[in-house]
Amino acid sequence: MADQPRIALFVTCLVDLIRPRIGFAALATLEAAGCDVVVPEAQTCCGQPALNSGDRKTAEKMARRNIALLEGYDAVVVPSGSCAATMRVHYPEILEHDAKWLPRARALAAKTYEILAYLDEVRGWRPDDVALPATATYHDSCSGLRELGIKRQPRRLLGAVEGLSLKPLAGEETCCGFGGTFCVKYPAISNAIVGEKAAAIDAAQADLLLSGDLGCLMNMAGKLHREGSAVRAFHTVEVLAGMGDGPAIGEDA
Amino acid sequence: MSAREAILSRLTGKTPAEVIRAEAAALLLAPERPAVDPAQVEAVFAERLAVPSVAASYERVADWTALPETVRRYFAEQGIPPVLCLPPDPRLRALDWSGFTLHDSAAPDELAVLAVARLGVAETGSLVFETSPEAPMLPNFLALHHLVVVPEVVAQLEEAALPGAQPRAHYWVTGVSGTTDIEGTYVRGAHGPRFLHVIRLAG
Amino acid sequence: MSAHEPQAAFKTRAAAALHDPILKIAVERTAGTAEAKRAVAVEAFPDFEAARTRAAAIKDHVVANLGHYLEQFEANAVAAGAVVHWARTSQEACDIVIGLCRQAGAKSVARSKSMLGEEIGLPHALAEAGIARVETDLAEHIIQLSGERPSHIIWPAMHKTREQVSELFRRSHRDPHAEETIAAMAESARRHLREGMLSADVGISGANFLVADSGAVCTVTNEGNAELSLVPPRLQIVTAGIEKIVPSMGHAVHLLRLLARSATGAALTQYTTFYTGPKRESDRDGPEEMHIVLVDNGRTAMREEGLAEMLRCIRCGACMNHCVVFRQIGGHAYGGTYPGPMGAVLTPAIDGLAKTRDLPNACTLNGKCQEVCPVNIPLPTLLRGWREKSWREGLEPKATRAGIDLWAWFAQRPKLYRAATATALKSLRAMGRGGWLRKVPMAGGWTRYRDLPKPAAESFMAQYRKGRRR
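Predict the joint structure of the above. Result:
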């Protein structure tokens, strides 16, 4: 890889529409980590809603579209474990029958990274001169954890944030009940799951909830807010970019 | 088409039997399993018998002749009357059981049975039995107190297998009859033995 | 087919389960304990990951060579004196069992819990045939008394609290417990069941393993109820799925090491028995006849239709113990014989997808089930496979299809996507003041239970295009 890799930032549809500051935080940390960051203009979504709904044809179309859009860069970096896993794990699976696209899918998969793994493992980067005097508790989002092995990376990175201390979260690896379209298809079950998660987060007695997936964060933060909890939620990369002193999820007016 | 033919016709492949055999054998090479130090087999066995899911009591005696006295002492400690279900195993029948009333088939409310295991297994604290004319199976599952003589201990479960023609039943006992069916709470003596007492023959 | 409740009612059943505070407590007590104990056992095991890779390879090898092994098993079982029967469907399997019972003039059978028996509807078939059934597993005894079906494959009565069990026993046992303790209740069942077990004409069980190179049938229990059901009667009948084959005892040993650890956290179940044929001539006990019914019931089809990996399953229950959905709704909401993640894969194969399409959808795809599976079944992938089939066959609700179609149309046209999402953002932001939305039309599934963070005034892409970089 070149000294200053030319990487594509794929911000994901949720970050694009709900919380752009995660995208800007990603941009800032990647540049700080010595990357030449490009934001491909034609990006929309990784195709996960189709993939998980069983609409295989559309998922394949989205995969081909994104492969063509992103394969020209040294790496593709995504601020979401589940969207990164869609590209890294599932694109090669769903294009397995397609002799022309499978090698391209594999090539893209090999250079697609979730942002925290990329910053920590590939770039060996640490936040420099970032301070946040607060306590935080960490939820391991399922796709990142189980499909990409993201566990220690965010903790190592957060360890370099001055003044920030992590408090243990009971059931930190337990699903929050988001599950993409699951949370609206089976809202009552999803609610029961996130209700328990919110109680565990409250019990951790931290100022902040951190995680690496906006979908899960919206679910947990939305439940915490409905229940009147004072815990504030951020994407990990916001904290790493020194943006942890700004508005948390749901605090943008 | 019979059900047999209908099922097999969809399952029969072309792989030669010797290839299948070789594949199956390769799958058993260097299995992952709890290690048992060959020098510590006896100690590990005793240790495993004590874990909560096995919860057997354990003692060592010099040889077969010590058994009647050992059983007498156990009965006295447990307050069991001297009525013993004793299988027609000549090694047991040859001993001096005076003072005991013996019978060889178990009553539905049998209190205690003495049986001989072929082996103990250190890895799990299991006791390995086989049925034979001298070794009925039912008493070992009916009695409240299961007393087991163990003449030999091996390290791992693989060594429990009996080579050659198999008896009607080959079975491993790894604790007492237990259940967690009500609220996950462990209860001993669900149907069969509530107490397991292992008597290791040292000789 | 067993007498299942109508599948269309999944959401209704799930809602009822969510409103049942007792169920939640009961499920949590048992599954929570199992989860904790499994974690300790797996941690202590040397290289559990390699062990489960090997276990998966053993099962894959068997499934790939199933015809070979079934014939080998049959030959060895017959040589040992057993009679082997084959059944394509649950109906055929039940007919064989009932036929054998009638031939023997059986009035009562002692049954040792088996999921295959539940799958083929054997309890129901025996009742229809007027044959008394003594369920000898404590949990099966409880649900027999309550007239219910199992809610878990290891703890069929996990949905029952001690208070509920106490009431059932007081109503039905001749000499019920005097104290309100779990030990006293278990003792009451012990007294009550013993006579039925010892006087049954037929003993029926499933099989945890069928050992091809010896013809042995292996059962594992913690209560010893399989042995007490199968040794005294004159006739032993085993009903087993054809995927239960292992090449040899050594292979069984490897799987047994993982089975108990995954189910209860123990190194081994208390009683592990290999039965090879009926009693030998001079044996003191054992049945005069041993019959083994090998049941397909959709398994060859699963092997052919992309579900071969599901045939690895050794029925440990770890996937459901660790499933966030199961932990909330329990087993009955699934409506099939098998609940939880493995049930959500199996039930559509057994009962048909049209009636069961909710099961593979009611899952967050969080991957925990595969992580704890001792044979590494890619449960999320198989569940996705059912979702794809459901989509292809038009079984998904119209609204879902329309939503995905609309999203997909825009997602492939970036310019229109930006314009459409910009408009959507505006109207969403108009729905409330402050940073949170409490009510959003069409998103009631979300806002009924949680607040929705108000979306950005301008998307990331729009701001980026305008030159914002930080």
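Chain B touches chain C through 74 residues (CB under 8 Å).
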